[in-house]
Amino acid sequence: MSQFQAVLRDRVEEAVREMCAAREGGNDGRAEFYVARLAELFELAARHGVDTQGWVEDPAVAALVTSTRH
Q: Could you tell me the superkingdom of the organism this chain comes from (predicted)?
């Protein structure tokens, strides 16, 4: 895994943690911010040909991110 991929994956993991924490805390606005952030990160990965399969294990989170992709 390249350094770019490693940093990108770390940012995805961080965004997932923050999104889950926001949802658990009832902060829907903040959670939506992280959903958008995840979509941006996955779009960046796609533009650079990075395979992100399996990066997000929770099906509900993966569905949220997938639904925001164009």
A: Bacteria
First to last CA, the chain: 26
How far apart (Å, rounded) are the C-alpha atoms in residues 39 and 57? 15
Q: Do 66 and 38 touch, CB atoms closer than 8 A? A: no
pLDDT tens for 21-53 read 999 999 999 999 999 999 999 999 999 999 988
Q: CA 40 to CA 27: how far, in whole Å?
A: 20
Q: pTM (2 decimals)? A: 0.85
Residues 8, 45 contacting (CB under 8 angstroms): yes
